[in-house]
Specification:
Layout (H helix, E strand, L loop, with lengths): L6 H25 L5 H23 L3 H11 L5 E5 L5 E5 L2 E5 L4 H12 L3 E5 L14 E4 L6 E6 L3 H21 L9 H19 L8 E5 L6 H8 L4 E5 L7 H4 L5 H9 L3 E4 L2 H14 L3 E3 L4 E4 L2 E7 L17 H11 L7 E8 L6 H14 L7 E8 L6 H20 L8 E4 L5 H10 L2 E4 L8 H9 L6 E5 L12 E3 L4 H13 L2 H17 L2 H36 L1
Parallel strand pairs: 1-4, 1-7, 4-6, 7-8, 8-9, 9-12, 13-14, 13-16, 14-15, 16-17, 17-18
Antiparallel strand pairs: 2-3, 5-6, 10-11, 11-12
Length: 568
Amino acid sequence: MNIELTESQVAIVSALFWLAIAFGILAWLYHKKPAPLRVTLEHSKRGLERVRSTVQTVTRWNAERLKSLLFDSFDKPKVCVISNREPYIHNREGALTKLLRPASGLVSALEPIVKACSGLWIAHGSGSADREMSDKNGKLQVPPEKPEYLLKRVWISKEDEDGYYNGFANEGLWPLCHIAHTRPRFSEGDWNKYVKVNQQFAKAMADEKLPGRPVVLVQDYHFALLPKLLKQNRPETLVSLFWHIPWPNAETFGICPWRENLLTGMLASDLIGFHTQFHCNNFFASVERFLEAKVDRETSSVTHQGHVCTIKPFPIGVDWPSPHAIEDSAFEDERLAILAEFGLPSEIKLGVGVDRADYTKGIVERFRSIELFLELHPEWIDRFSFIQIASPCRTKIARYAELSSEIKATAKEINERFAYAKVPPIVLKLKQHSHEQIHKLYRAADFCLVTPLHDGMNLVAKEFVSARSDMRGVLILSHFAGAAMELDHALLVNPYSANECAKAIHQAIMMPPSEQAERMRIMGEQVSERNIYAWAGSFLSEISEVSRRKGLRTSLFKREKEHLKATS
Protein backbone atom coordinates (compact mmCIF):
# COMPACT_ATOMS: atom_id res chain seq x y z
CA MET A 1 0.00 0.00 0.00
CA ASN A 2 1.17 3.52 -0.71
CA ILE A 3 0.83 4.92 2.80
CA GLU A 4 3.02 7.88 3.63
CA LEU A 5 5.13 7.50 6.77
CA THR A 6 6.47 10.32 8.87
CA GLU A 7 10.26 10.82 9.13
CA SER A 8 10.25 9.37 12.64
CA GLN A 9 8.35 6.28 11.50
CA VAL A 10 10.75 5.74 8.61
CA ALA A 11 13.65 6.04 11.05
CA ILE A 12 12.10 3.42 13.35
CA VAL A 13 11.53 1.01 10.48
CA SER A 14 15.10 1.48 9.21
CA ALA A 15 16.58 1.04 12.69
CA LEU A 16 14.66 -2.19 13.25
CA PHE A 17 15.78 -3.49 9.88
CA TRP A 18 19.47 -2.95 10.64
CA LEU A 19 18.96 -4.22 14.18
CA ALA A 20 17.67 -7.50 12.75
CA ILE A 21 20.81 -7.74 10.58
CA ALA A 22 22.98 -7.08 13.63
CA PHE A 23 21.26 -9.84 15.62
CA GLY A 24 21.93 -12.25 12.76
CA ILE A 25 25.63 -11.39 12.84
CA LEU A 26 25.78 -11.70 16.65
CA ALA A 27 24.09 -15.08 16.49
CA TRP A 28 26.72 -16.25 14.02
CA LEU A 29 29.54 -15.04 16.25
CA TYR A 30 28.06 -16.66 19.33
CA HIS A 31 27.12 -20.05 17.94
CA LYS A 32 29.92 -20.30 15.36
CA LYS A 33 27.25 -21.73 13.06
CA PRO A 34 26.63 -19.04 10.58
CA ALA A 35 23.20 -19.08 9.06
CA PRO A 36 23.29 -18.41 5.33
CA LEU A 37 23.09 -14.71 4.56
CA ARG A 38 19.93 -15.41 2.55
CA VAL A 39 18.22 -16.78 5.69
CA THR A 40 19.34 -13.82 7.80
CA LEU A 41 18.04 -11.36 5.22
CA GLU A 42 14.80 -13.30 4.92
CA HIS A 43 14.21 -13.09 8.69
CA SER A 44 15.05 -9.39 8.57
CA LYS A 45 12.65 -8.86 5.71
CA ARG A 46 9.84 -10.60 7.62
CA GLY A 47 10.54 -8.44 10.66
CA LEU A 48 10.49 -5.32 8.54
CA GLU A 49 7.17 -6.33 6.99
CA ARG A 50 5.66 -6.86 10.45
CA VAL A 51 6.84 -3.42 11.59
CA ARG A 52 5.60 -1.79 8.39
CA SER A 53 2.23 -3.50 8.82
CA THR A 54 2.00 -2.13 12.37
CA VAL A 55 2.88 1.39 11.24
CA GLN A 56 0.33 1.20 8.43
CA THR A 57 -2.36 0.15 10.88
CA VAL A 58 -1.50 3.10 13.11
CA THR A 59 -1.49 5.60 10.23
CA ARG A 60 -4.65 4.35 8.49
CA TRP A 61 -7.40 6.94 8.47
CA ASN A 62 -10.14 6.67 11.10
CA ALA A 63 -12.58 8.96 12.94
CA GLU A 64 -10.03 9.98 15.58
CA ARG A 65 -7.37 10.89 13.04
CA LEU A 66 -9.99 12.95 11.20
CA LYS A 67 -10.78 14.91 14.36
CA SER A 68 -7.09 15.56 14.97
CA LEU A 69 -6.66 16.86 11.43
CA LEU A 70 -9.56 19.28 11.90
CA PHE A 71 -8.01 20.96 14.94
CA ASP A 72 -4.48 20.86 13.51
CA SER A 73 -5.68 22.59 10.31
CA PHE A 74 -8.13 25.24 11.53
CA ASP A 75 -8.21 27.71 14.39
CA LYS A 76 -11.41 27.22 16.41
CA PRO A 77 -13.13 25.45 13.49
CA LYS A 78 -16.87 25.68 12.93
CA VAL A 79 -17.95 23.23 10.25
CA CYS A 80 -21.31 23.16 8.49
CA VAL A 81 -22.40 20.30 6.19
CA ILE A 82 -25.19 21.02 3.71
CA SER A 83 -26.88 18.07 2.00
CA ASN A 84 -30.29 17.20 0.62
CA ARG A 85 -30.53 14.04 2.70
CA GLU A 86 -30.46 14.33 6.48
CA PRO A 87 -28.38 12.11 8.81
CA TYR A 88 -31.36 11.46 11.14
CA ILE A 89 -34.99 11.10 10.01
CA HIS A 90 -38.08 10.92 12.23
CA ASN A 91 -40.98 8.96 10.75
CA ARG A 92 -44.43 8.35 12.13
CA GLU A 93 -45.50 4.69 12.20
CA GLY A 94 -49.02 4.47 13.59
CA ALA A 95 -48.98 5.96 17.07
CA LEU A 96 -45.19 5.67 17.31
CA THR A 97 -42.40 7.96 16.17
CA LYS A 98 -39.32 6.11 14.96
CA LEU A 99 -35.82 7.42 14.37
CA LEU A 100 -34.15 6.27 11.15
CA ARG A 101 -30.42 6.59 10.57
CA PRO A 102 -29.93 6.08 6.82
CA ALA A 103 -26.96 3.82 6.00
CA SER A 104 -24.63 6.36 4.41
CA GLY A 105 -20.91 6.52 3.82
CA LEU A 106 -21.26 10.29 3.62
CA VAL A 107 -22.59 10.45 7.19
CA SER A 108 -19.85 8.07 8.38
CA ALA A 109 -17.19 10.37 6.91
CA LEU A 110 -18.54 13.80 7.81
CA GLU A 111 -20.27 13.24 11.14
CA PRO A 112 -16.99 12.87 13.12
CA ILE A 113 -15.91 16.31 11.83
CA VAL A 114 -19.20 17.98 12.78
CA LYS A 115 -19.24 16.26 16.16
CA ALA A 116 -15.68 17.31 16.96
CA CYS A 117 -16.42 21.03 16.65
CA SER A 118 -20.09 20.96 17.79
CA GLY A 119 -20.92 22.02 14.25
CA LEU A 120 -24.02 22.28 12.12
CA TRP A 121 -25.70 20.01 9.53
CA ILE A 122 -28.37 21.59 7.30
CA ALA A 123 -30.62 19.22 5.33
CA HIS A 124 -34.11 18.78 3.91
CA GLY A 125 -36.51 17.70 6.64
CA SER A 126 -38.20 14.85 4.76
CA GLY A 127 -39.48 12.62 7.58
CA SER A 128 -43.20 12.44 8.38
CA ALA A 129 -42.49 13.28 12.06
CA ASP A 130 -39.55 15.65 11.51
CA ARG A 131 -41.48 18.83 12.34
CA GLU A 132 -42.85 17.64 15.66
CA MET A 133 -39.39 16.42 16.75
CA SER A 134 -37.71 19.77 15.95
CA ASP A 135 -38.06 23.21 17.53
CA LYS A 136 -39.89 26.09 15.84
CA ASN A 137 -36.78 26.82 13.72
CA GLY A 138 -36.42 23.21 12.56
CA LYS A 139 -33.47 22.54 14.89
CA LEU A 140 -32.58 19.66 17.18
CA GLN A 141 -29.44 18.35 18.83
CA VAL A 142 -28.16 14.98 17.55
CA PRO A 143 -27.38 12.15 18.05
CA PRO A 144 -30.36 11.79 20.43
CA GLU A 145 -28.52 9.52 22.88
CA LYS A 146 -25.53 11.89 23.15
CA PRO A 147 -26.08 15.28 21.49
CA GLU A 148 -22.88 16.60 19.90
CA TYR A 149 -24.00 18.85 17.03
CA LEU A 150 -26.97 20.74 15.64
CA LEU A 151 -29.19 19.42 12.85
CA LYS A 152 -31.20 22.13 11.12
CA ARG A 153 -34.04 20.95 8.92
CA VAL A 154 -35.18 23.02 5.95
CA TRP A 155 -38.88 22.68 5.10
CA ILE A 156 -39.58 22.37 1.38
CA SER A 157 -43.15 22.39 0.08
CA LYS A 158 -44.31 19.43 -2.03
CA GLU A 159 -44.57 21.71 -5.04
CA ASP A 160 -41.04 23.04 -4.58
CA GLU A 161 -39.65 19.54 -3.94
CA ASP A 162 -41.27 18.27 -7.11
CA GLY A 163 -39.63 21.02 -9.19
CA TYR A 164 -36.25 21.20 -7.42
CA TYR A 165 -35.63 17.52 -6.63
CA ASN A 166 -37.76 15.38 -8.95
CA GLY A 167 -37.63 17.91 -11.76
CA PHE A 168 -34.44 19.90 -12.30
CA ALA A 169 -32.07 17.77 -10.19
CA ASN A 170 -33.22 14.29 -11.21
CA GLU A 171 -34.96 14.69 -14.56
CA GLY A 172 -32.44 17.29 -15.71
CA LEU A 173 -28.99 17.15 -14.12
CA TRP A 174 -28.95 13.42 -13.28
CA PRO A 175 -29.41 12.07 -16.84
CA LEU A 176 -27.34 14.94 -18.26
CA CYS A 177 -24.32 14.10 -16.10
CA HIS A 178 -24.58 10.32 -16.48
CA ILE A 179 -24.91 10.39 -20.28
CA ALA A 180 -27.16 7.33 -19.90
CA HIS A 181 -29.12 7.88 -23.11
CA THR A 182 -32.18 9.01 -21.20
CA ARG A 183 -33.09 12.43 -22.48
CA PRO A 184 -32.72 15.20 -19.86
CA ARG A 185 -35.87 17.24 -19.32
CA PHE A 186 -35.47 20.93 -18.51
CA SER A 187 -38.29 23.36 -17.77
CA GLU A 188 -38.39 26.98 -16.64
CA GLY A 189 -40.69 26.05 -13.77
CA ASP A 190 -38.33 23.36 -12.42
CA TRP A 191 -35.36 25.74 -12.75
CA ASN A 192 -37.18 28.41 -10.73
CA LYS A 193 -37.86 25.88 -7.96
CA TYR A 194 -34.20 24.81 -8.01
CA VAL A 195 -33.13 28.44 -7.58
CA LYS A 196 -35.68 28.96 -4.80
CA VAL A 197 -34.58 25.92 -2.78
CA ASN A 198 -30.90 26.85 -3.12
CA GLN A 199 -31.82 30.30 -1.79
CA GLN A 200 -33.70 28.69 1.12
CA PHE A 201 -30.60 26.73 2.13
CA ALA A 202 -28.41 29.83 1.81
CA LYS A 203 -30.75 31.72 4.15
CA ALA A 204 -30.81 28.81 6.59
CA MET A 205 -27.01 29.03 6.77
CA ALA A 206 -26.93 32.83 7.01
CA ASP A 207 -29.46 32.87 9.85
CA GLU A 208 -27.11 30.83 12.05
CA LYS A 209 -24.44 33.58 12.19
CA LEU A 210 -21.63 31.13 12.97
CA PRO A 211 -18.57 32.73 14.62
CA GLY A 212 -15.16 33.14 12.98
CA ARG A 213 -14.64 31.83 9.47
CA PRO A 214 -17.06 28.93 8.94
CA VAL A 215 -16.03 25.94 6.84
CA VAL A 216 -19.00 24.83 4.71
CA LEU A 217 -19.06 21.40 3.03
CA VAL A 218 -21.76 21.50 0.34
CA GLN A 219 -22.77 18.09 -0.99
CA ASP A 220 -23.79 17.18 -4.54
CA TYR A 221 -25.71 18.29 -7.60
CA HIS A 222 -28.74 19.53 -5.69
CA PHE A 223 -26.82 22.68 -4.72
CA ALA A 224 -24.83 23.95 -7.71
CA LEU A 225 -25.96 27.54 -7.04
CA LEU A 226 -25.37 27.48 -3.30
CA PRO A 227 -21.62 28.36 -3.14
CA LYS A 228 -22.23 31.74 -4.83
CA LEU A 229 -25.19 32.49 -2.57
CA LEU A 230 -23.15 31.64 0.53
CA LYS A 231 -20.30 33.90 -0.59
CA GLN A 232 -22.71 36.76 -1.31
CA ASN A 233 -24.09 36.50 2.22
CA ARG A 234 -20.68 36.16 3.87
CA PRO A 235 -17.59 36.49 1.63
CA GLU A 236 -15.10 35.21 4.22
CA THR A 237 -16.83 31.80 4.44
CA LEU A 238 -14.63 28.93 3.28
CA VAL A 239 -16.89 27.01 0.87
CA SER A 240 -16.29 23.60 -0.70
CA LEU A 241 -18.52 21.58 -3.00
CA PHE A 242 -18.25 17.84 -3.59
CA TRP A 243 -19.98 16.63 -6.77
CA HIS A 244 -20.83 12.95 -6.17
CA ILE A 245 -21.95 12.13 -9.73
CA PRO A 246 -20.00 12.26 -13.02
CA TRP A 247 -19.36 15.48 -14.91
CA PRO A 248 -20.12 15.10 -18.66
CA ASN A 249 -18.08 16.33 -21.61
CA ALA A 250 -18.56 19.98 -22.58
CA GLU A 251 -20.77 19.23 -25.59
CA THR A 252 -23.21 17.24 -23.47
CA PHE A 253 -23.18 19.75 -20.61
CA GLY A 254 -23.98 22.47 -23.13
CA ILE A 255 -27.49 21.01 -23.51
CA CYS A 256 -28.47 22.62 -20.19
CA PRO A 257 -30.15 25.99 -20.80
CA TRP A 258 -28.72 27.36 -17.53
CA ARG A 259 -25.16 26.06 -18.00
CA GLU A 260 -23.50 29.44 -17.30
CA ASN A 261 -25.55 29.90 -14.11
CA LEU A 262 -24.55 26.49 -12.81
CA LEU A 263 -20.84 26.99 -13.56
CA THR A 264 -20.81 30.48 -12.05
CA GLY A 265 -22.54 29.22 -8.91
CA MET A 266 -20.10 26.34 -8.49
CA LEU A 267 -16.96 28.40 -9.17
CA ALA A 268 -17.72 30.66 -6.20
CA SER A 269 -16.49 27.67 -4.12
CA ASP A 270 -12.96 27.71 -2.81
CA LEU A 271 -12.67 23.99 -3.59
CA ILE A 272 -14.64 21.65 -5.86
CA GLY A 273 -14.14 17.90 -5.63
CA PHE A 274 -15.00 15.14 -8.11
CA HIS A 275 -14.37 11.40 -7.86
CA THR A 276 -11.90 11.18 -10.75
CA GLN A 277 -9.43 13.33 -12.70
CA PHE A 278 -11.44 12.51 -15.82
CA HIS A 279 -14.45 14.35 -14.40
CA CYS A 280 -12.22 17.26 -13.34
CA ASN A 281 -10.94 17.50 -16.93
CA ASN A 282 -14.50 17.52 -18.27
CA PHE A 283 -15.34 20.33 -15.86
CA PHE A 284 -12.31 22.38 -16.99
CA ALA A 285 -13.40 21.89 -20.63
CA SER A 286 -16.95 23.05 -19.80
CA VAL A 287 -15.62 26.20 -18.10
CA GLU A 288 -13.38 26.98 -21.10
CA ARG A 289 -16.28 26.45 -23.48
CA PHE A 290 -18.96 28.50 -21.76
CA LEU A 291 -17.33 31.11 -19.48
CA GLU A 292 -14.72 33.82 -19.68
CA ALA A 293 -12.36 32.37 -17.11
CA LYS A 294 -8.72 31.43 -16.72
CA VAL A 295 -8.20 27.66 -16.45
CA ASP A 296 -4.83 26.63 -15.05
CA ARG A 297 -4.44 22.86 -15.26
CA GLU A 298 -0.98 22.94 -13.65
CA THR A 299 -2.41 24.32 -10.42
CA SER A 300 -5.81 22.61 -10.94
CA SER A 301 -7.59 25.93 -10.59
CA VAL A 302 -10.01 28.29 -12.31
CA THR A 303 -10.00 32.07 -11.86
CA HIS A 304 -13.41 33.55 -12.53
CA GLN A 305 -14.57 37.08 -11.68
CA GLY A 306 -11.43 37.59 -9.61
CA HIS A 307 -11.99 34.49 -7.48
CA VAL A 308 -9.72 31.42 -7.53
CA CYS A 309 -11.35 27.99 -7.21
CA THR A 310 -9.34 24.76 -6.90
CA ILE A 311 -10.72 21.64 -8.63
CA LYS A 312 -9.32 18.20 -7.70
CA PRO A 313 -10.26 14.50 -7.58
CA PHE A 314 -11.10 12.85 -4.25
CA PRO A 315 -12.24 9.23 -4.78
CA ILE A 316 -14.71 8.34 -2.04
CA GLY A 317 -14.37 5.10 -0.07
CA VAL A 318 -16.26 2.83 2.34
CA ASP A 319 -15.91 1.81 5.99
CA TRP A 320 -12.91 -0.41 6.62
CA PRO A 321 -13.09 -2.87 8.20
CA SER A 322 -16.71 -3.56 7.29
CA PRO A 323 -19.05 -2.65 10.17
CA HIS A 324 -20.97 -5.85 9.38
CA ALA A 325 -17.95 -8.17 9.45
CA ILE A 326 -18.20 -11.73 10.80
CA GLU A 327 -15.64 -14.42 11.58
CA ASP A 328 -14.27 -16.13 8.46
CA SER A 329 -15.27 -19.49 9.93
CA ALA A 330 -18.94 -18.42 9.78
CA PHE A 331 -18.97 -17.69 6.03
CA GLU A 332 -20.05 -21.16 4.89
CA ASP A 333 -22.94 -21.42 7.37
CA GLU A 334 -24.13 -17.97 6.36
CA ARG A 335 -23.93 -18.87 2.67
CA LEU A 336 -26.06 -21.96 3.21
CA ALA A 337 -28.60 -19.88 5.16
CA ILE A 338 -28.82 -17.30 2.35
CA LEU A 339 -29.30 -19.97 -0.32
CA ALA A 340 -32.04 -21.60 1.77
CA GLU A 341 -33.71 -18.21 2.31
CA PHE A 342 -33.95 -17.66 -1.46
CA GLY A 343 -35.00 -21.26 -2.15
CA LEU A 344 -31.76 -22.18 -3.93
CA PRO A 345 -29.78 -25.44 -3.67
CA SER A 346 -26.51 -25.39 -1.75
CA GLU A 347 -24.18 -26.58 -4.54
CA ILE A 348 -24.86 -23.83 -7.12
CA LYS A 349 -22.65 -20.95 -8.19
CA LEU A 350 -24.21 -17.69 -7.01
CA GLY A 351 -23.90 -14.19 -8.42
CA VAL A 352 -25.30 -11.00 -6.86
CA GLY A 353 -26.13 -7.48 -7.97
CA VAL A 354 -27.05 -4.68 -5.56
CA ASP A 355 -28.37 -1.42 -7.02
CA ARG A 356 -31.05 1.19 -6.91
CA ALA A 357 -33.60 0.62 -9.66
CA ASP A 358 -32.00 3.35 -11.78
CA TYR A 359 -31.45 3.38 -15.55
CA THR A 360 -27.77 4.30 -15.01
CA LYS A 361 -27.10 0.96 -13.27
CA GLY A 362 -27.50 -1.21 -16.39
CA ILE A 363 -29.71 -3.85 -14.75
CA VAL A 364 -31.59 -4.82 -17.93
CA GLU A 365 -28.29 -5.07 -19.85
CA ARG A 366 -26.92 -7.21 -17.00
CA PHE A 367 -29.84 -9.64 -17.28
CA ARG A 368 -29.21 -10.02 -21.02
CA SER A 369 -25.57 -10.95 -20.32
CA ILE A 370 -26.74 -13.64 -17.88
CA GLU A 371 -29.09 -14.97 -20.55
CA LEU A 372 -26.22 -15.10 -23.06
CA PHE A 373 -23.94 -16.81 -20.52
CA LEU A 374 -26.46 -19.64 -20.16
CA GLU A 375 -26.82 -19.86 -23.97
CA LEU A 376 -23.04 -20.18 -24.37
CA HIS A 377 -22.62 -22.52 -21.39
CA PRO A 378 -25.77 -24.65 -21.05
CA GLU A 379 -23.88 -26.95 -18.68
CA TRP A 380 -24.45 -24.29 -15.98
CA ILE A 381 -28.25 -24.40 -16.25
CA ASP A 382 -29.54 -25.63 -12.87
CA ARG A 383 -26.09 -25.00 -11.36
CA PHE A 384 -26.19 -21.22 -11.43
CA SER A 385 -28.43 -18.40 -10.17
CA PHE A 386 -28.19 -14.63 -9.88
CA ILE A 387 -29.84 -12.61 -7.10
CA GLN A 388 -30.58 -8.99 -8.05
CA ILE A 389 -31.49 -6.49 -5.34
CA ALA A 390 -33.06 -3.44 -7.00
CA SER A 391 -34.21 -0.83 -4.48
CA PRO A 392 -37.08 1.34 -5.77
CA CYS A 393 -36.21 5.03 -6.05
CA ARG A 394 -37.65 8.28 -7.47
CA THR A 395 -40.94 6.53 -8.13
CA LYS A 396 -42.69 9.84 -8.86
CA ILE A 397 -40.62 10.22 -12.04
CA ALA A 398 -42.18 8.48 -15.06
CA ARG A 399 -38.91 7.07 -16.42
CA TYR A 400 -38.26 5.23 -13.15
CA ALA A 401 -41.73 3.66 -13.11
CA GLU A 402 -41.16 2.49 -16.68
CA LEU A 403 -37.77 1.05 -15.74
CA SER A 404 -39.19 -0.99 -12.84
CA SER A 405 -41.68 -2.56 -15.23
CA GLU A 406 -38.92 -3.23 -17.76
CA ILE A 407 -36.67 -4.87 -15.13
CA LYS A 408 -39.51 -7.16 -13.97
CA ALA A 409 -40.52 -8.06 -17.53
CA THR A 410 -36.93 -8.90 -18.57
CA ALA A 411 -36.32 -11.13 -15.54
CA LYS A 412 -39.65 -12.90 -16.12
CA GLU A 413 -38.91 -13.43 -19.82
CA ILE A 414 -35.48 -14.98 -19.15
CA ASN A 415 -36.79 -17.22 -16.35
CA GLU A 416 -39.65 -18.41 -18.58
CA ARG A 417 -37.21 -19.18 -21.37
CA PHE A 418 -35.40 -21.55 -18.98
CA ALA A 419 -38.60 -22.68 -17.25
CA TYR A 420 -37.59 -26.34 -17.63
CA ALA A 421 -34.73 -25.71 -15.18
CA LYS A 422 -35.22 -26.37 -11.48
CA VAL A 423 -33.04 -23.38 -10.53
CA PRO A 424 -34.21 -19.93 -11.74
CA PRO A 425 -31.46 -18.02 -13.59
CA ILE A 426 -32.56 -14.73 -11.97
CA VAL A 427 -34.05 -14.06 -8.53
CA LEU A 428 -35.29 -10.45 -8.52
CA LYS A 429 -36.08 -8.51 -5.34
CA LEU A 430 -37.51 -5.06 -6.06
CA LYS A 431 -37.43 -3.76 -2.48
CA GLN A 432 -35.19 -2.09 0.08
CA HIS A 433 -32.79 -4.28 2.03
CA SER A 434 -30.79 -3.38 5.13
CA HIS A 435 -27.01 -3.04 4.90
CA GLU A 436 -26.69 -6.10 7.14
CA GLN A 437 -28.78 -8.17 4.72
CA ILE A 438 -26.80 -6.90 1.74
CA HIS A 439 -23.48 -7.79 3.35
CA LYS A 440 -24.76 -11.33 3.93
CA LEU A 441 -25.40 -11.55 0.18
CA TYR A 442 -21.91 -10.23 -0.59
CA ARG A 443 -20.38 -12.93 1.59
CA ALA A 444 -22.53 -15.70 0.09
CA ALA A 445 -21.73 -14.82 -3.52
CA ASP A 446 -19.20 -16.41 -5.85
CA PHE A 447 -19.13 -13.17 -7.81
CA CYS A 448 -20.65 -9.69 -7.78
CA LEU A 449 -21.76 -7.88 -10.96
CA VAL A 450 -21.28 -4.11 -10.72
CA THR A 451 -21.97 -2.96 -14.27
CA PRO A 452 -23.33 0.60 -14.35
CA LEU A 453 -23.56 2.31 -17.72
CA HIS A 454 -21.92 5.34 -16.07
CA ASP A 455 -21.24 6.12 -12.43
CA GLY A 456 -19.26 8.67 -10.43
CA MET A 457 -17.77 5.97 -8.18
CA ASN A 458 -20.18 3.12 -7.26
CA LEU A 459 -19.52 2.04 -3.70
CA VAL A 460 -21.10 -1.41 -4.15
CA ALA A 461 -17.80 -2.53 -5.73
CA LYS A 462 -15.82 -1.39 -2.69
CA GLU A 463 -18.40 -2.74 -0.23
CA PHE A 464 -18.14 -6.20 -1.84
CA VAL A 465 -14.35 -6.17 -1.42
CA SER A 466 -14.66 -4.89 2.15
CA ALA A 467 -17.11 -7.70 3.00
CA ARG A 468 -14.82 -10.49 1.72
CA SER A 469 -12.35 -10.93 4.56
CA ASP A 470 -12.22 -14.60 3.50
CA MET A 471 -10.34 -13.51 0.33
CA ARG A 472 -12.86 -15.30 -1.90
CA GLY A 473 -15.27 -14.12 -4.56
CA VAL A 474 -14.77 -12.24 -7.84
CA LEU A 475 -15.71 -8.65 -8.65
CA ILE A 476 -16.92 -7.96 -12.22
CA LEU A 477 -16.80 -4.20 -12.71
CA SER A 478 -17.84 -1.76 -15.43
CA HIS A 479 -15.13 0.30 -17.12
CA PHE A 480 -17.52 3.25 -16.74
CA ALA A 481 -17.64 3.25 -12.94
CA GLY A 482 -15.22 5.57 -11.14
CA ALA A 483 -14.20 2.60 -8.96
CA ALA A 484 -12.58 0.96 -12.02
CA MET A 485 -9.83 3.61 -11.86
CA GLU A 486 -8.71 2.06 -8.56
CA LEU A 487 -9.90 -1.57 -8.55
CA ASP A 488 -8.02 -2.72 -11.62
CA HIS A 489 -7.77 -6.29 -10.28
CA ALA A 490 -11.49 -6.75 -10.81
CA LEU A 491 -12.65 -8.28 -14.10
CA LEU A 492 -13.28 -5.06 -16.05
CA VAL A 493 -16.04 -5.13 -18.68
CA ASN A 494 -17.99 -2.95 -21.09
CA PRO A 495 -21.58 -3.17 -19.73
CA TYR A 496 -22.98 -2.48 -23.21
CA SER A 497 -21.41 -5.74 -24.45
CA ALA A 498 -23.46 -8.77 -23.37
CA ASN A 499 -20.79 -11.04 -24.86
CA GLU A 500 -17.98 -9.43 -22.81
CA CYS A 501 -20.02 -9.65 -19.60
CA ALA A 502 -21.01 -13.28 -20.29
CA LYS A 503 -17.34 -14.21 -20.75
CA ALA A 504 -16.47 -12.49 -17.46
CA ILE A 505 -19.19 -14.44 -15.62
CA HIS A 506 -17.71 -17.71 -16.94
CA GLN A 507 -14.19 -16.59 -16.00
CA ALA A 508 -15.38 -15.67 -12.50
CA ILE A 509 -17.05 -19.00 -11.70
CA MET A 510 -14.08 -20.95 -13.10
CA MET A 511 -11.43 -18.86 -11.33
CA PRO A 512 -9.24 -20.91 -8.95
CA PRO A 513 -9.27 -19.93 -5.25
CA SER A 514 -5.61 -18.86 -5.35
CA GLU A 515 -6.29 -16.28 -8.07
CA GLN A 516 -9.40 -15.06 -6.26
CA ALA A 517 -7.36 -14.59 -3.09
CA GLU A 518 -4.59 -12.66 -4.83
CA ARG A 519 -7.02 -10.32 -6.59
CA MET A 520 -8.98 -9.77 -3.39
CA ARG A 521 -5.80 -9.13 -1.39
CA ILE A 522 -4.69 -6.36 -3.74
CA MET A 523 -8.14 -4.77 -3.94
CA GLY A 524 -8.52 -5.09 -0.16
CA GLU A 525 -5.34 -3.07 0.32
CA GLN A 526 -6.66 -0.39 -2.02
CA VAL A 527 -10.06 -0.19 -0.31
CA SER A 528 -8.61 -0.16 3.22
CA GLU A 529 -6.06 2.53 2.39
CA ARG A 530 -8.60 4.77 0.63
CA ASN A 531 -11.42 4.26 3.10
CA ILE A 532 -14.23 6.74 3.84
CA TYR A 533 -12.13 8.59 6.43
CA ALA A 534 -9.22 8.93 3.99
CA TRP A 535 -11.62 10.61 1.56
CA ALA A 536 -12.82 13.10 4.17
CA GLY A 537 -9.27 13.60 5.44
CA SER A 538 -7.82 14.38 2.01
CA PHE A 539 -10.70 16.75 1.26
CA LEU A 540 -10.32 18.55 4.59
CA SER A 541 -6.53 18.78 4.12
CA GLU A 542 -7.01 20.41 0.71
CA ILE A 543 -9.52 22.92 2.12
CA SER A 544 -6.94 23.84 4.74
CA GLU A 545 -4.25 24.25 2.08
CA VAL A 546 -6.57 26.36 -0.09
CA SER A 547 -7.31 28.54 2.93
CA ARG A 548 -3.58 28.96 3.60
CA ARG A 549 -2.89 29.95 -0.02
CA LYS A 550 -5.74 32.44 -0.02
CA GLY A 551 -4.38 33.94 3.19
CA LEU A 552 -0.96 34.37 1.57
CA ARG A 553 -2.54 35.99 -1.50
CA THR A 554 -4.53 38.40 0.69
CA SER A 555 -1.44 39.27 2.72
CA LEU A 556 0.65 39.91 -0.42
CA PHE A 557 -2.14 42.00 -1.95
CA LYS A 558 -2.36 44.16 1.20
CA ARG A 559 1.40 44.68 1.32
CA GLU A 560 1.47 45.61 -2.38
CA LYS A 561 -1.40 48.03 -1.86
CA GLU A 562 0.33 49.64 1.13
CA HIS A 563 3.57 49.90 -0.84
CA LEU A 564 1.84 51.64 -3.77
CA LYS A 565 0.10 54.01 -1.37
CA ALA A 566 3.40 54.85 0.35
CA THR A 567 5.25 55.52 -2.91
CA SER A 568 2.51 57.53 -4.62
